[in-house]
Amino acid sequence: MMPPTTTPTHSSFSPLSPLSLSPYKPFTRHPFSTPKLFFSIQFWHHLNTKHTMSIPHCFLSLSFLLLFSCHLLNGLEDTEFGHAIDRKLLGLKRKEKLSHFKFYWHDIVGGRNPTSVAVVPPTLKLNTTTAFGLVNMIDNPLTLGPELSSKLVGKAQGFYASASQSEIDLLMAMNFAFSEGKYNGSTITILGRNCVFNKVREMPVIGGSGLFRFARGYAEARTHWFDYKSGDAIVEYNVYVMHY
User: What kind of fold does domain 97-243 have according to CATH?
Assistant: First the structure.
């Protein structure tokens, strides 16, 4: 006598049931049917065609598929926001070069036409001799020589702020906006610490625009002249910049 045939129920283990996959109906259209994800699903399908696979192995395979799918979906989202491009599109096919610029920075605080104006005065209640908290906005001339009448090559635009309670120590944030020759319209950006009474102060170049895109380097400042009465100063700058 033949034993009665039994039809598997949902309680019976079937490796194809979780995703409702059938070996005779491969995925042709799927909302996440990218090539890599399709390969992962086919790989999972191939593993599940082995009905002798143990439950732990199937669980690990399913976990792998879910993790890999999440990774792919995150990757797709990132590629819509940003992607790699050819360096040549931004003019980076040229060899990077090092340039040296020397000019004089004129900080004119007094007189009828100041180029450096205090926009935030120091707090008097702090009783400090360093003008801690002072902020000056600047539009200082950059000249080829130390005399103000020397050839103008650009402007230093930005601000400096007194950032120390124990010494004259400035936070410098400014753009050297050039107006001379092929550098006309290009800028070099400085952001750094300036201990005014040090003989040489070094500040980093953090970037630039125009011919100084992707620029990096440093600037050295040396006081050429300072008037204690008016607060006016002339500072020699030597800037070393890596750029394309």
Answer: AOC barrel-like (2.40.480)
